[in-house]
Design brief:
- The protein is an alpha+beta fold.
- It is built from three helices and three strands, in the order βααββα.
- Strands 1-3-2 form a three-stranded antiparallel sheet.
- The relative contact order is 0.19.
Length: 64
């Protein structure tokens, strides 16, 4: 299991820190994992699944 720190997460999802924080607080983005008193990360598998869900949504036809 790999943990992504902020720079790697930003490259993976292409979103700002503020936007990912808002998505996370609303339950629409994987929750961070506390690594130490002043450090956090995100599980790569959860981020990959989140990205795959976005791609699946794109493939589904839009409702009228």
């Amino acid at each position: 299991m790999k943990v992504l720190r902020w720079p790697a997460l930003e490259k993976a999802v292409g979103l700002s820190r503020t936007h990912t924080d808002r998505l996370e607080k609303s339950g629409k983005f994987p929750r961070r994992v506390k690594l130490g008193p002043r450090s956090v990360g995100w599980l790569e598998d959860e981020i990959d699944a989140w990205i795959a869900d976005r791609a699946d949504e794109r493939a589904e036809p839009s409702a009228p």
